[in-house]
């Protein structure tokens, strides 16, 4: 249960980081103005925020279950 929650949380945070461009060099962020997934800036920002929230939620649930065990 703990490993599953941590893995799901890490996947959601990875998705969030990819969508906001956190893993790119600053020079590359200017070049990549087109959306990678053609989502539009508003949708991409909303998806990245919510996936980050879900990622933090799942990681905290996994940590809480690990702490209680």
From TrEMBL:
Domain of life the protein comes from: Bacteria
Keywords linked to the UniProt accession: Membrane, Transmembrane, Transmembrane helix
Transmembrane segments: 48-68
Protein's name according to its UniProt entry: DUF3185 family protein
Protein source organism: Gottfriedia luciferensis
Lineage: Bacteria, Bacillati, Bacillota, Bacilli, Bacillales
